[in-house]
Write a structure and sequence with these properties.
The complex is a heterodimer.
Chain A (H helix, E strand, L loop, with lengths): L2 H4 E6 L2 E6 L15 H16 L6 E5 L16 E4 L5 H11 L4 E7 H7 L1 H10 L4 E6 L2 E2 L5 E2 L24 H8 L3 E6 L3 H13 L4 E6 L15 H7 E3 L1 E6 L14 E5 L5 E6 L10 H13 L3 E8 L22 H4 L3 H9 L2
Parallel strand pairs in A: 3-4, 3-5, 5-6, 6-10, 9-10, 11-15
Antiparallel strand pairs in A: 1-2, 7-8, 9-15, 12-14, 13-14
Helix pairs in contact in A: 2-7, 3-5, 4-5, 5-6, 6-9
Chain B lengths: L1 E3 L15 E2 L1 E9 L4 H14 L4 E6 L8 E9 L12 E4 L2 H9 L6 E5 L14 E5 L1 H8 L9 H21 L3 H11 L5 H21 L6 E2 L10 E4 H11 L4 E4 L6 H14 L10 E4 L3 H13 L4 E5 L1 H17 L3 E9 L5 E5 L4 H6 L8 E3 L4 H18 L2 E7 H5 L1 E4 L14 E2 L1 H11 L16 E2 L11 E3 L13 H19 L6 E4 L5 E6 L2 H14 L4 E6 L1 E2 L5 H4 L6 E6 L5 H9 L8 E5 L8 H13 L23 E3 L2
Parallel strand pairs in B: 2-9, 3-6, 6-7, 7-8, 11-12, 11-13, 13-14, 14-17, 16-17, 19-20, 23-24, 23-26, 26-27
Antiparallel strand pairs in B: 1-28, 3-5, 4-5, 10-18, 14-15, 16-25, 22-24, 27-28
Helix pairs in contact in B: 1-4, 1-5, 3-4, 3-6, 4-6, 5-6, 7-8, 7-12, 9-10, 16-19
Chain lengths: 351, 653
């Protein structure tokens, strides 16, 4: 292996660092062999290397569940936080408030986000919190042995116990994200390497809440052919909306527009997503109404559409509204924290 | 054995029908939303300006508008600023509550009331003097109708309150110059026109008294010098300033009475004092969607290096419990100010209590104990909130500040706040350079390795540019390197270190304040807002021949020297709690060794009202009367008095 292959270059505080591959890798996975989450972890590692994501300034946060173990499995050089069940979004919010220069990757599961954490998820969307928010969606609670989550199929049957039927229809998390106010909403499949790579790259370049609902089969509790969260069903029914390309901010590269077929969306950092419509070529990814209509109609047709559903790169994110000083609050010097004795005297005047 | 006794009004400290000078309790009964707050503040500020120590309480039920509300003012030359339940002067502006209000006047008291009540109240008691005042007529003359002003009627409704200010001032000797100054302070700048209208209304009331009640009331005030160098302030304002001057950078909160004003004051002060000349802010404030998110943001911010703080009340800390447990175990700094109200559940949201004290100390699940700072005054609310931010950073742990509605939302005479001279403390945080040096010195970096032996480990913040800086924060069992571990020895070693850390912290906490009368056989322990009642109660007890030693607790975990340093010196030690079960009494019993716990007797008060001196002195006097000097009971088979259901409780076991 040549030296060039053994290190990855990343930008950090205006200089370039060469980091070993190990900086991007993580601990060995303790998840089941064949778990979709492991595939997603591989994609995260590959994408982080490909885009030169700086591990030092990236943090990985999660809630509780199989999915929420993921932060331990990639980016060794990044701080990680396995928080509380369903409450990763508030911890991510706090971390971002303390240091807005951090890149935050939040990883959650369907139980974590659609059940106990639905409130925090929706409020993160409402605030358009600038993080990458991934749901590894397998429609069940793996760690507690297969109970239904709020994304489980209606009439699905439990693998364990006496095969009880799920009486409630699932939440569609992409729909919830769009309604909630997220500015980048996509669905993908753990087995679709190419699409997932492009979506992850674009999501990392997005400024605002980038939500990825990734169907990630649970091989232990929910991988039977009729399950919409199984490998088989996912492979057979995956209907990519677009062929997605991601073009990093490299001025010398120009992508030609092909009339009526190619949509280009420029992201905040100057990078571009290119979307070549494969289906639903009337769908406008910049329209919430169009995206919601597409999701609802595909639900009616029992279709599994993947791809970028909605994006609003220009929408202000949460940090834009706060007027914080450029120095991260965590690094403000003492004199910026404690006002002068005169200020205290001024406050006391009112008493 | 448990018994209870009624408080003893004869020891109440405020003079009765014989009259008094500079010992005055006024109660104003109005309708919520009627704009009486300005008038009430003017009264108390005028008394303060005359140099008479004073305090005031808003007593309000949980509603927005239209229901009864009261304002209690106490002015006392002896400096007593604790609650005094029975007023000498009552102003009845709300007919709905008039009869009940009159029933609470002290014997010989004076009731000033609207002469346009549908039913006269003058015959309700024969030991009270009734003074009907033509408020509507007087305000109409002072503030004539103005057809060009569409808001006239609404303003009139508010201005009428200033008439009773004038009436009370004329009757008790409050100087009108002080009243006028207080009104101008209340209506500054662009509200100057309103100030003049209100001054006219107060003067109308004053003139009416001079004409109709020239002899005035038997309860008089005179200018003195008891407020020089002091301020009048709410505890929540003080704690808010404490957050600002303590260097808080992230305030995340969710509205809940009685803590909301703390966060609102803090936001206003932060905007004013922590905004850069270019308009950018050295802080951020987020109103979260609930308390779960408020503390989650606080924990996330503390983890990433901010000085984070949240304010809440009892039901809020319940929702925060899991996060607080995680923050304790994962060792993340965050400050929680709990402005306690009466629980359980929603309880009495606008009534005071010290009912969360044990919950704060032990919040979470499994093993965990938290630092709790317990201020007794606005000055301490300020200092301790600032200190809490340092302690949280220094010991990498949640720190509570335990105030209550009485302290937080009421107006107290206080010492001015002292500018924090000690530098801001950040605790053991390693940047990339320091981390490198640390690794050189100790061979490696382990997030949870106790290299100094004080239980406090070093941490790096997210964003630190060093290959060995990163670690994984988790609520699961972990080893020194923060790696996942369920090994019994790792778990136990971590718990032991956390215990060691708490011991290190204990030495840094505010010490109990101890004062003792000579020849005292009896000790008294109180904390927080009970302090003011305790100070007054000690004087009452002294008059009864019961000198006391007094210890005011200011922090949990309890100081290790409390047993030999205080409890050991007394035959009996009364522990005052504003909660039913004597929570701090229980904690002391768990803490004291060598049989000292047997000396403790619980004095509790838990009906939603702020504790008063009589609530402490009354039961202690009763109990002490049943003891011989050798400590034996005079009537061992009998409780000292008949139990009552609504009085303060003395309990022994």
């Amino acid at each position: 292996m040549s030296k060039a292959e053994a290190t990855i270059e990343v930008r950090s505080n205006g200089h370039t660092l060469s980091l070993p591959i190990v900086a991007f890798q993580g601990s060995p996975s303790t998840l089941c062999k064949g778990c979709g989450h492991n595939s997603i972890t591989s994609r995260l590692i590959d994408v982080a290397k490909a885009v030169g994501l700086n591990p030092y300034t990236t943090v990985k946060l999660s809630g509780i569940g199989c999915s929420s173990k993921t932060p331990a499995y990639f980016l060794n050089y990044s701080h990680g936080f396995n928080a509380l069940h369903g409450r990763m979004p508030s911890v991510a919010t706090g971390a971002l408030l303390a240091n807005h220069r951090l890149t935050i990757i939040g990883i959650s599961g369907d139980g974590d986000t659609a059940n106990i954490g639905l409130g925090q998820f929706k409020h993160a969307c409402r605030r358009n919190l600038p993080i990458l928010y991934i749901v590894e969606n397998n429609g069940c609670y793996g760690l507690t042995k297969g109970q239904f989550s709020a994304t489980a199929d209606l009439h699905a049957r439990l693998r364990r116990a006496s095969g009880e039927e799920n009486p409630a229809a699932p939440f569609d998390l992409c729909l919830e994200a769009i309604v909630g106010g997220a500015s980048f909403v996509a669905r993908s499949f753990a087995g679709d390497k190419k699409q997932l790579d492009s979506l992850l790259k674009a999501a990392l370049a997005h400024k605002g809440l980038a939500f990825l609902d990734i169907i990630s089969p649970c091989v232990t509790f929910n991988d039977f052919p009729e399950s919409t969260k199984s490998w088989t069903w996912g492979r057979e029914h995956n209907e990519p909306l677009q062929e997605i390309g991601f073009v990093p901010r490299l001025p010398e590269i120009e992508v030609e527009q092909q009339a009526g077929q190619l949509t280009k969306v420029q992201l905040h950092d100057g990078s571009t997503i290119t979307l070549r419509a494969l289906r639903e070529d009337h769908h406008d990814v910049r329209s919430r109404a169009s995206a919601m209509d597409l999701i609802l109609s595909s639900q009616e047709r029992n279709e599994f559409l993947t791809g970028l559903l909605y994006v609003a790169p220009e929408k202000p994110d949460f940090l834009d509204t706060l007027g914080m000083t450029d120095t991260p609050l965590a690094h403000l010097p003492d004199e910026a924290l404690r006002p002068s004795p005169e200020a205290l005297a001024d406050a006391m005047e009112a008493f | 054995m448990t018994t209870s006794v009624q408080s003893q009004p004869e020891m109440g400290g405020v003079a009765d029908a014989r009259g008094s000078v500079n010992d005055l309790a006024i109660r104003v009964g109005t309708v919520n939303g009627s704009g009486s707050q300005s008038a009430n503040l003017v009264l108390v500020r005028a008394l303060f300006a005359m140099g008479i120590p004073c305090a005031a309480k808003n007593v309000f039920p949980s509603n927005i508008e239209g229901l009864p509300t009261w304002f209690h003012i106490r002015a006392c030359e002896k400096g007593y600023i604790g609650n005094h339940p029975d007023p000498q002067v009552l102003v009845c502006m709300n007919e709905q509550t008039a009869a009940d209000d009159v029933s609470q006047l002290c014997s010989g008291g004076v009731c000033i009331y609207r002469d346009d009540f549908k039913e006269g109240i003058g015959g309700l008691r024969d030991d009270v003097r009734f003074v009907p005042v033509p408020f509507a007529k007087l305000v109409g003359e002072a503030y004539p109708p103005d057809k060009s002003d569409p808001g006239y009627r609404e303003k009139l409704r508010k201005v009428i309150n200033m008439v009773y200010v004038g009436v009370v001032a004329g009757g008790t000797g409050i100087e009108m110059d002080a009243v006028r100054a207080a009104i101008r302070q209340q209506f500054p700048g662009r509200k100057a026109k309103a100030a003049e209208i209100n001054i006219a209304a107060a003067e109308a009331g004053y003139a009416w008294v001079m004409e109709n009640l020239p002899e005035g009331l038997p309860y008089r005030v005179e200018r003195m010098d008891g407020t020089a160098g002091k301020i009048l302030v709410e505890g929540n304002q003080a704690a808010a300033l404490g957050a600002v001057f303590g260097g808080a950078t992230v305030l995340s909160w969710y509205p809940i009475t009685p803590s909301s004003s703390l966060a609102e004051y803090a936001e206003a002060y932060l905007k004013k004092y922590r905004t850069n000349p270019d308009g950018t802010r050295n802080f951020t404030v987020v109103q979260a969607e609930d308390e779960l998110a408020a503390i989650g943001m606080g924990v996330g911010a503390g983890w990433a290096g901010a000085r984070s703080i949240t304010a809440t009340s009892g039901p809020g800390i319940s929702l925060m419990a899991e996060f607080v447990g995680l923050a304790y175990f994962a060792e993340i700094p965050v400050v929680i100010v709990d402005v306690q109200r009466m629980g359980p559940s929603t309880g009495l949201p606008t009534r005071t209590s010290q009912g969360d004290i044990l919950a704060m100390h032990t919040l979470g699940h499994g093993d965990g104990r938290h630092i709790v700072l317990i201020p007794a005054s606005p000055a301490e609310c300020f200092a301790m909130t600032a200190e809490a931010l340092d302690l949280a950073a220094e010991f990498q742990t949640p720190v509570f500040v335990a105030t209550d509605l009485d302290l937080g939302m009421n107006l107290w005479m206080s010492d001015p706040f002292e500018y924090p001279e000690k530098p801001i403390r950040r605790g053991k945080v390693l940047d990339a350079e320091a981390l490198e040096a640390h690794i050189q010195e100790f061979g490696s970096f382990g997030r949870y390795r106790d290299v100094d032996g004080d239980g406090v480990c070093y941490r790096t913040l997210p964003g630190t540019e060093h290959p060995l800086a990163a670690y994984f924060t988790r609520g699961t069992g972990h080893n020194e390197k923060s790696g996942y571990s369920e090994r019994p020895e790792d778990w136990r070693a971590n718990l032991d270190r956390l215990t060691r850390k708490l011991e290190s912290a204990r030495a840094s906490l505010p010490k109990p304040v101890i004062e003792a009368d000579p020849d005292a056989h009896v000790g008294l322990i109180a904390y927080g807002s009970s302090h003011w009642a305790a100070v007054e109660a000690r004087d009452l007890l002294r008059e009864q021949g019961i000198p006391t030693g007094y210890c005011r607790l200011r922090a949990l975990p309890i100081d290790n020297t409390l047993g030999p340093g205080f409890v050991e010196k007394y035959d009996r030690v009364y522990v005052v709690d504003q909660n039913r079960d004597g929570q701090v009494n229980s904690l002391l019993r768990m803490t004291l060794v060598g049989g000292l716990d047997a000396r403790l007797i619980s004095v509790t008060h838990s009906n939603g009202t702020p504790i008063a001196a009589a609530d402490i002195a009354g039961p202690i006097t009763n109990w002490e009367r049943s003891f011989h000097h050798d400590g034996s009971l005079t009537t061992p088979s009998q409780p000292p008095s008949e139990p009552r259901s609504d009085g303060p409780v003395v309990s022994t076991e």
